[in-house]
Amino acid sequence: MTFASRTAPALAFVYSKQTGTLGPRVDYSLDGSSWTNAWSAPIAFAGGCVPVQLDLSPLAGEASVRFRFSSGSSVSNLATFDDITVLEITNVPHACCAPGGPSCANATTSACTCAIDPYCCATAWDDVCIAIATVYCGAQCPDLAVCGSPTAGNCTVMHATAACADADCCVSVCTLDAFCCESAWDATCVQEAGAACFAAADIDRDGRVAAVDLAMVLDSWGLSGVSADIDGNGIVGAGDLAMVLSAWTG
Questions:
Q1: Which residues pair with 210 in a beta bridge?
Q2: I want to staple 145 with a disulfide (CB 3.0 to 4.6 A). Which of 24, 28, 162, 190 is the partner?
Q3: Which regions of 162-240 does DSSP assign to beta strands (E)?
Q4: Does the pTM exceed 0.90?
Q5: Cα dist. 225→132, 234, 248 in Å?
């Protein structure tokens, strides 16, 4: 047969055999004399008729392709083939948050992701592509435990999953403590985020030293054991106020 006009050919069939025996097998030839193995059945067999679909895209465009279906064994293995069909594989678009073939259903997300990692549009859409799509391209894939994922959780709050949503802060913490990106974002990770990612005067940990931080110092004036004791001298007072004003970002 010819695959001259095919771009993604596949061979589908069902087979059965006797378990514990070699074969059966399928070979192909482009010249009728030399043969290449395309598929061999596993030795273990659970019974029944097993469907198989072989991706033959490397043979796309070939003018002549021959197939040979054989028992592949020197002893009887009761091998049978049925429902043999040559078909064309269609690339059905899949969601950008699911692994699958190259690219994904959202063209904008796909283009953004593949500009960062061409593999995602040339070969397959794997877990790395999903992470890139979420962190950099707005895919919003849920429960993705990678630094910078919008669903990864607040860096200043404990959560059972790894990583957190602020990419820079997350990387800073995990460089020091890999547990935070491998297992869970626990109390230690939160403390490390506070030290590594925020100015001491940013009491509310919103990335700015502004009115809220000033209000927290004034509201806690004279108190001890509170977060507004920035200078750590045991009581909220003039030193803490000076630190807020000197680090003011507005």
A1: none
A2: 162
A3: none
A4: no
A5: 42, 7, 23
Prior bond to 24 cis, omega within 30? yes
Phi, then psi, of 70 in degrees rounded to 5: -140, 165
Q: How far apart are CA 46 and CA 48, in angstroms?
A: 7
Buried b (16+ CB within 10 A) or exposed e, 202-233: bbbbeebbbeebbebbeebeeeeeeebbbbee
CB contact at 8 A, 55 and 3: no
Q: Which two tokens stand for residue 114?
A: 């593949």
Distance of CA 94 to the CA centre of its chain: 14
**CA separation, residue 83 to residues 50, 140, 148, 223, 229 (Å):** 11, 42, 49, 81, 77
pLDDT, tens digit, for every residue of 202-212? Answer: 787 777 788 88
Task: State residue 29 phi and psi, 5-degree precision.
Answer: -140, 140
